[in-house]
Amino acid sequence: MKILYLETSSKNCSVAISDDEKLLCLCEEVSENYKQSESLHTYVEWALEGAGLSMKDIEAVSLGKGPGSYTGLRIGASSAKGFCYGLKIPLTAVNSLESMIEPFLGKNYDYIVPLIDARRMEVYTAVYDGKTGKELSPTEAKILDETSFDEFKDKKVIFVGDGAKKAKDILNLPDAEFRDDIYPSAQYLIKRTLEKIENKEFEDIAYFEPFYLKDFHGVKKKKSED
């Protein structure tokens, strides 16, 4: 089954294509300026070309549904819905935090904790078992302080994501590992997507909304003085 994967919840605009579990092509770039609006469809074209496929060969779309950037999630969801409507194919959606833990599973960590940077000292986070990847605490918006995650003081834990940088500065966990260069990536949506397809866990394309976790707070532009 040829599947298109879109992950636009972070600074990493990421597109992948697989044939069942085999990754055929990955196109992604981390940008401080969130380039999803200008890059996503170009990356889809490049991924199709790299996989030797055309859009009509795609049989399902999988989306990293968030949490993360409100604008990035809107762009990803709109594109995923458009592809599914146009091709009459199903949509699956995977928690973006799950794609961040995949490279660290089975590496002798007791816990893997993704941290997506939100405003100020806030992060989007969940806790996963380091061996099985099972979610141990649900996704939440969490304000960090020096007592956060104290329960892991004697455990082997790794914090991953762009929120790990500020976590390292404030958490009282000297033995923990921190990787702030990890972003959600489309290539790590494959395993969970195939599970969802096998279980027929498809989204209702008409009513699907990304996992924003919090309401959007926009910034009003100042009126020009002329």
Automatic annotation (TrEMBL):
GO terms for molecular function: tRNA N(6)-L-threonylcarbamoyladenine synthase activity. Residues 37-170 form the Gcp-like domain. Its EC number is 2.3.1.234. It comes from the Bacteria. CDD domains: ASKHA_NBD_TsaB. Keywords: Acyltransferase, Transferase. It holds the Pfam family TsaD. Gene3D superfamilies: 3.30.420.40. PANTHER family: TRNA N6-ADENOSINE THREONYLCARBAMOYLTRANSFERASE, TRNA THREONYLCARBAMOYLADENOSINE BIOSYNTHESIS PROTEIN TSAB. This is tRNA (Adenosine(37)-N6)-threonylcarbamoyltransferase complex dimerization subunit type 1 TsaB. It comes from Chryseobacterium herbae. The gene is tsaB.
